[in-house]
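Limitations
The structure tokens in this dataset are predictions for the assembled complex, not deposited experimental models. Users should treat interface geometry with appropriate caution, especially where small molecules or nucleic acid strands are included. An illustrative entry is reproduced here so readers can see what is and is not provided.
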Amino acid sequence: MRRRLLLCLPLLAFLVLAGLLFRGLHRDPQALPSALVGQPFPAFSLPGVQDERLFTRQDLLGRPALVNVWGTWCVACREEHPVLTRLKAEGVVIHGINYKDDNASARRWLAEFHDPYQLDIRDDEGRLGLDLGVYGAPETFLIDARGVVRYRHVGVVDQRVWDADLGPRYRALVATP
Amino acid sequence: MRVGWLLLLLVWSTLSQAAIDPYGFRDDAERARFQALTRELRCPKCQNQDLADSNAPIAGDLRREIQRLMAAGRSDEEIIALLEQRYGEFIRYRPPFEGRTLLLWLLPGLALLAGAGLLLVLTRRRRPEQTLSDAERQRLAQLQAEEEP
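Predicted assembly:
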């Protein structure tokens, strides 16, 4: 009996390994756990896209909001833009960080399409992006009224992502501030 | 005329040099430190390259940030900790040795030991009995004697 159990051992080891590898097949290797979730949104002092008035972290506080990192050079941001515009129409608070972009192009983009952002922050050198751990636009952070990062989504925000991940979390924050 | 061309080429060659190494290091030790740090840290975008290797814009930003922090007099540990705060543990090629990563660090050694142990047990068990008892030896001698004509 003991011998038979021992003979099963290689099969068992194989099954465990196969199970782990199978799970690995369905995971997105690009999705990194954010180091910032649960941490306060980093402090900054940056000009706006439209004017030179300085924005700081204080301006983000007071109500839950999405903070969307975007750029005109980013193709996926174009795809995401109509979704953000619709969310704004539904009353969702969205702030924009224009990340490492040419200011003239950014203004043209906002005028040409639609500006879904409450605050238009300009991060020319990517310093705020660096503090946020941004590694590719678009990225969207969900912050609560006290400015603590609650969730981060890397990649395009489409209807599926909003319905499954961001929307429920945002509504929960609005319901219980 | 030819000298002019040669001079122009000479000037150009220094330009290309500057494109490769835009960081102003004070000395070779500082350069070596920078190279060691950028080899130790992983690019968050192209995940199988270190910061020194990667051409991704974010890797360039992080290299500049590392140089800025070095110029500000931060130690290697401080720089790694600062980047880890922003990009998570992922950015380190060598995760710290602690409770959570115990299995990761020790499993290869343990697997090697287990394999060696298994091999030892199996070879021991297979070794055939080589010594004959007195009775068997006698019988062998008898048989050999019978065979001979």
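Some entries come with short summary sentences. For this one: Chain B is about 65% helix and 0% strand.
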